[in-house]
Design a protein that fits this description.
Layout: E1 3-5, E2 12-14, E3 20-21, E4 38-39, H1 41-47, E5 57-58, E6 61-62, H2 68-72, E7 78-79, E8 86-87, E9 108-115, H3 121-133, H4 135-140, H5 148-164, E10 183-190, E11 199-208, H6 217-220, H7 224-229, E12 232-237, H8 243-251, H9 264-277, E13 282-283, E14 286-287, E15 291-295, E16 322-323, H10 324-342, H11 345-353, E17 357-361, H12 389-397, E18 403-404, H13 409-415
Parallel strand pairs: 9-11, 9-12, 12-15, 15-17, 16-18
Antiparallel strand pairs: 1-2, 3-6, 4-5, 7-8, 10-11, 13-14
Helix pairs in contact: 3-5, 9-11
The structure holds guanosine-5'-triphosphate (GTP), magnesium ion (MG) and zinc ion (ZN) (2 copies).
Magnesium ion (MG) binds at residues 121-122, 169, 172, 208.
Pfam family, one: DO-GTPase2
InterPro entries: DO-GTPase2, P-loop_NTPase
Protein name: Double-GTPase 2 domain-containing protein
């Protein structure tokens, strides 16, 4: 039976148990009157006090029938007990948010995106989605439509802003100013194997937190439910926040350095503490949620990289497979760069806190924003490098994309940050 995780409040429920919402439509039957909207207090509580009273009125919610035949079905329509008109809209038991159609038909994978303010999270999601539909999508035969009206609207807006107007995203507003909706996508990957037919569908839930909310352990508590429900975490690290990179970049006549934000080691240790205290599984003291640590803005690091650095080109994805040796080459490169920048403080801490860890390096834009227009993307548009790697690694770990490995398992383990266990 499919278990549905609400992407808004992270309540878990069997799909068949989800309540329905009446659509308040006319029956067409003579004498039938449609239901009236009524205050939905559960939903209004979740949305917070900024919701105007008029918007609290919504179609009545009614429970799923507890019959045997309804148990197996997830998307079946049910007649509203009051007006008799069938509806297929399911809502969360916990918060009464409506699920987009199809959301309840497949498992979902929640990917948490964390990182200090201005580390590049919002730019990254926008470019990642674009790459998964274009260059990368073609290699793996992936499709990634946005789910639900709200994600579809934001998806269009993100694309138009960055790729047509060449505008960078605004600072993401903190949760205290209202709830930030997650982005919901339906990922379809063709099944593999000689007799395999059709595609495998998974819901990808991206939650782009405001860096401002990750400043301290108290602020991060707002995101606890979300972090605890995550199947994988992508921690974005801005290299321009690392002391020695700043020192080296400040001398060049490049763009001005960004303001100093929360350090990645503080975010990582608060994150590990949150996950431990919320019952995420722990192995020998380390949190087992897979953790992709991605250094962003690698375009700004070119002067520090050797001519053959794997960070200067994209992974190949030949045959629609993830090349694990290529990932390990990137992992080693980043581990040595990071260790060089801070004498290994960040890596040691991450490796003590997280059991499944891989380092990545990416650039969403491929070049710094123009010096005379810092809120704009480079004139030639985003020319991303390696943005897909962290997500594909997380998906590969769950068997959702094929991974090609050339080394025996045992040796590989020793190179992925587990050596010092
Ligand atoms: N050089 C370079 N700069 C980038 C890149 N991506 C983002 N930036 C810069 O980083 C700034 C912040 O990016 P955002 O995506 O808004 O960062 P964020 O993590 O979402 O920030 P908050 O929403 O405040 O938490 C941008 O305005 C750019 O100036 C990149 O690939 N290369
Ligand atoms: Mg943001
Ligand atoms: Zn919910
Ligand atoms: Zn009704």
């Amino acid at each position: 039976m499919t278990t549905v995780i609400c992407p808004y409040c992270f309540d878990r429920a069997p799909a068949a148990r989800l309540p329905y919402r009446c659509l308040m439509m006319a029956t067409g039957v003579r004498g039938g009157t449609p239901c009236d909207a009524e205050p939905d207090d559960v939903w209004a509580d979740f949305m917070g006090p900024s919701l105007p009273p008029s918007r609290r009125l919504r179609g009545p919610v009614f429970p799923a029938p507890r019959t045997l035949s309804s148990l197996g079905s997830t998307s079946a329509r049910q007649p509203c007990p009051r007006c008799g008109v069938a509806t297929s809209v399911r809502v969360c038991r916990g918060c009464h948010n409506d699920f987009p159609s199809e959301y309840c038909d497949q498992d979902s994978r929640i990917i948490a995106l964390v990182g200090a303010k201005a580390s590049g999270k919002s730019t990254y999601v926008s470019v990642l989605v674009n790459e998964l539909r274009g260059r990368v999508g073609r290699e793996y035969n992936i499709s990634l439509p946005a789910m639900g009206a709200e994600t579809q609207r934001r998806d269009r807006e993100m694309e138009e802003d960055l790729y047509e107007r060449l505008r960078l995203p605004d600072t993401t507003r903190p949760a205290a100013m209202g709830f930030n909706d997650p982005l919901l996508y339906r990922l379809s990957v063709p099944r593999r194997g000689r007799y395999a037919k059709g595609s495998r569908h998974t819901t990808l839930v991206f939650f782009d937190a405001a860096g401002e909310d990750l400043k301290s352990a108290e602020a991060m508590a707002r995101y606890t439910q979300y972090l605890a429900a995550a199947d994988g975490i992508i921690l974005l690290v801005d290299p321009l926040q690392m002391g020695s990179v700043r020192d080296r970049s400040a001398s060049a006549d490049g763009p001005p350095l960004p303001a100093v934000e929360t350090s990645p080691q503080q975010i990582a240790s608060d994150l590990a503490a949150q996950l431990r205290s919320h019952g995420r599984s722990v192995s020998r003291g380390r949190v087992t949620t897979p953790m992709a640590v991605a250094v962003t803005k690698t375009d700004a690091l070119r002067a520090l990289l050797g001519a053959h650095s794997p960070l200067l080109r994209n992974a190949t994805h030949t045959g629609g497979e993830l090349d694990d040796d290529d990932r390990l080459a990137v992992h080693e490169e980043l581990r040595s760069l990071l260790s060089d920048w801070d004498s290994g403080v960040l890596c040691r801490q991450l490796e003590n806190d997280f059991a499944e860890l891989s380092y990545f390096g990416l650039s969403a834009l491929g070049a710094p924003p123009p010096a005379d227009a810092p809120a704009d993307a480079p004139k030639s548009g985003p020319q991303p490098l390696r943005v897909e790697d962290p997500l594909l690694w997380l998906l590969g770990r769950r068997g959702l994309v094929p991974v090609r490995k050339s080394q025996p398992e045992g040796q590989k383990e020793n190179r992925t940050g587990k050596a010092d266990a």
